[in-house]
Amino acid sequence: MSHWTSSLENVLSLLIQPLEWVMLIAVLGGGFFLFFHSRGVPLLKFKMAFQLLFQKEKNKGISRFQALSAVLAATVGLGNISGVAIAIHMGGPGVLVWMWLTALIGMVIKFYSCTLAVQLRQFENNGEPLGGPMYYMEMGIKKWGKPLAVWFSIAGLFGVLPAFTANQLTQTFINVVQPDTFFLLGAFQWKFIMGFLLSVASSFVIFGGLKSIVRVTSNLVPAMVGLYFLMGIFILFSNSEQVFPTFKLIFTEALNFKTAVTGGFWGLVILGVRRAVFSNESGVGNAPMYHGQSQSTRGTDEGLVAMLGPFFDTVLVCSITGLIVIISGAYLLPNLNGIVLTLEAFRRLFFGIGDQLLLLMVFVLTLSIL
Q1: Is residue 173 part of a domain?
Q2: What is the pTM of this model?
Q3: Is the pLDDT reported for residue 209 higher than 60?
Q4: How does pLDDT run across 319-356, given as a tens digit for each residue?
Q5: Using CA atoms, how far apart are residues 139 and 141, in angstroms rounded to an integer?
Q6: Nearest to 119 by CA among 303, 285, 267
């Protein structure tokens, strides 16, 4: 099994490497184009975005707050908790700077994509809105819109597969609970059981439709993000003397042209962009699907609210994770990676029980994502 898995990883690595440059050009190139086209105006409307987030609406659909919560459920999760740890493990502390810069560009991308999702959408007979990239592609690009919408839908089926999420939760469960001490079944059997239980639990939410999903996530996600944020702030405050040196290390390593990362300096940049996109899903197309079904009648208002997603997700949550992982020194351990690395960092810095609290948060966020 391990030989087969290793072979599959090698094949996928060969396929992905040339596509990383395509992603870099598409995300950063497209993002910079939108930034200069808008003259950075969306980023200057930060205060208005927060005001719109809590503004009451009376139209059909889901609220802006629910839409943003659903998007954050899909982004503020393992991309922030384990994805950042993977990035630091592979590229060092400097990768955080490129994640932050990509997040700013991602905010502009989110603004435009979610604005279009409201301005160019369709409605069911009962008045329920239907929005997303496939709709505004078809309606906004007359000649090539339909083929692009079909291609996006097919690619999206593979892009949103929850295998990574389920695997990381299972790994968290096995490392923290150590179920073999109670019932000696083996790692594979426990992974199978966890996968089955997650499928059953997720089905109750999924069969309830999108409104069921956003109702659950709008309640659970803010609480879990708040708990994670408070834990992170407490840890950083308790280790305040190390925060400034850590930031200095991050910015110094970000411009390290002699980095040992595969591909050198540009390999480091690609790694930061890749992890930022995985973290906040800017340009992936998930966010417009949620925001396209919101109550908003003005696309720009919805775009401003959607723009907050990358800020909460990457600028705040990813930064907390990254700082904790670096301060703990756990990223220097060669045998730790992904969620296991983050668990070790929280265990070291939060009274020895940080990994257990993290398990609870990962479980709730994973259920929301699935």
Answers
A1: yes
A2: 0.78
A3: no
A4: 898 999 999 988 888 777 777 888 888 888 888 878 77
A5: 6
A6: 303
| Tokens encoding 260 | 């040992």
* C-beta separation of 143 from 315 below 8 A: no
Q: Kindly state whether residue 127 falls inside one of the protein's structural domains.
A: yes
- Domain containing 155: what range? 48-369
* Site of tokens 């083996």: 186
DSSP E strand boundaries for 45-169: 122-123, 129-130
Residue 43 forms part of a structural domain: no
Report the C-alpha gap between 319 and 322 in whole angstroms: 5
Only one residue has tokens 């690609």, namely 270
Q: Which two tokens stand for residue 10?
A: 């090698």
In a domain, 333, yes or no: yes
Cβ atoms of residues 291 and 306 within 8 Å: yes
> Which residue is associated with the tokens 């870099």?
24
From CA 297, how far away is CA 37, in angstroms rounded? 23
Cα–Cα distance, 314 to 284 (Å, whole number) = 15
Token digits for 292?
């396209």
Can you give the CATH number for the domain in which 278 is found?
A: 1.20.1740.10
- Between CA 59 and CA 29 the distance in angstroms is 36
Domain count, the chain: 1
Contact 296, 64 (CB under 8 A): yes
